[in-house]
TrEMBL record:
Keywords: Repeat, RNA-binding. GO terms for molecular function: RNA binding. It holds the Pfam family RRM_1. The lineage of its organism: Eukaryota, Metazoa, Chordata, Craniata, Vertebrata. SMART domains: RRM. Belongs to the RRM elav family. The keyword Metal-binding does not apply. GO terms for cellular component: ribonucleoprotein complex. This is ELAV-like protein.
Length: 308
């Protein structure tokens, strides 16, 4: 009972600041601000481990709900990872555009203890996209919420909502990428609509003068799902970053980073296959123009896909 997790930290808060804030309560054994492995950006949460359990309890009572800049931090006991709590993150779509995060929590709280919740909003207009995420304390609670709410109409809604597991391989990172996506001022590029209609052309000087994708075989996309093209990845990009970026939007069946045969470095692009068209379109709208490290990504439907 000495280890705490601190959520909703301001993006620019450093590990030293976190340590001095919590060190004012009592002696700290260790403190870690979690950062994105690739970009180095804060993921907005961290862990503080006290020497004495009473100091951890006091920190919860004193600092939980504290306002820091525009954020209200959440301080709670960190739970050891176990099967009962893994994969308790839900993806909710079809929400009324007027629904607030608080109303979303009220709707779901009847099924169990909610750890975090989020409604995605359009970066430019600030209007809800009708999509949200709810993370429960335990997977069984998330399962009950799916049973109880999937296909139901919430109060005041005209359409039924869809509730399912957000099948992302590394939830902490994907949640973090989402928080980075939806709260970071660095994303100044309003996402253009997916260029489905026009054939996507590479800028002339890209990819070692390679002019077409001929000869590249994307396993697992034959007629299954929607293939998304991701361009301007860094040379050290790997499959995990694609899983983490696209996983929160819905079911991803396959990801592939195209590598140079000799150096095994990423050639600057990759592919993601998603089963559901709406989720794929949402991922494209959200991630096209997204700044990853020092690169701005181009994300669009892969165009030789025969549309159903």
């Amino acid at each position: 009972k000495t280890n705490l997790i601190v959520n909703y930290l301001p993006q620019n808060m450093t590990q030293e600041e976190l340590k001095s804030l919590f060190g004012s309560i009592g002696e700290i054994e260790s403190c870690k601000l979690v950062r994105d492995k690739i970009t180095g950006q804060s993921l907005g949460y961290g862990f503080v481990n006290y020497v004495e359990p009473k100091d951890a309890e006091k920190a919860i009572n004193t600092l939980n709900g504290l306002r820091l800049q525009t954020k209200t931090i959440k301080v709670s006991y960190a739970r050891p990872s176990s099967a009962s709590i893994r994969d308790a993150n839900l993806y909710v779509s079809g929400l009324p555009k007027t629904m607030t995060q608080k109303e979303l929590e009220q709707l779901f709280s009847q099924y169990g203890r909610i750890i975090t919740s989020r409604i995605l909003v359009d970066q430019v207009t600030g209007v809800s996209r009708g999509v949200g995420f709810i993370r429960f304390d335990k997977r069984i609670e998330a399962e009950e919420a799916i049973k109880g709410l999937n296909g139901q109409k919430p109060p005041g809604a005209t359409e039924p909502i869809t509730v399912k597991f957000a099948n992302n391989p590394s939830q902490k990172t994907s949640q973090a990428i989402l928080s980075q996506l939806y709260h970071s001022p660095s994303r100044r590029y309003p996402a253009p609509l997916a260029q489905q209609a026009q054939r996507f052309r590479f800028p002339p000087m890209t990819i070692d003068g390679m002019t077409s994708l001929a000869g590249i075989n994307i396993p697992g996309h034959a007629g299954t799902g929607w293939c998304i093209f991701v361009y301007n990845l860094a040379p050290d990009a790997d499959e995990s970053i694609l899983w983490q970026m696209f996983g929160p939007f819905g079911a991803v069946t396959n990801v592939k980073v195209i590598r140079d045969f000799n150096t095994n470095k990423c050639k600057g692009f990759g592919f993601v296959t998603m089963t559901n068209y709406d989720e794929a379109a949402m991922a494209i709208a959200s991630l096209n123009g997204y700044r990853l490290g020092d690169r701005v990504l181009q994300v669009s439907f892969k165009t030789n896909k025969t549309h159903k």
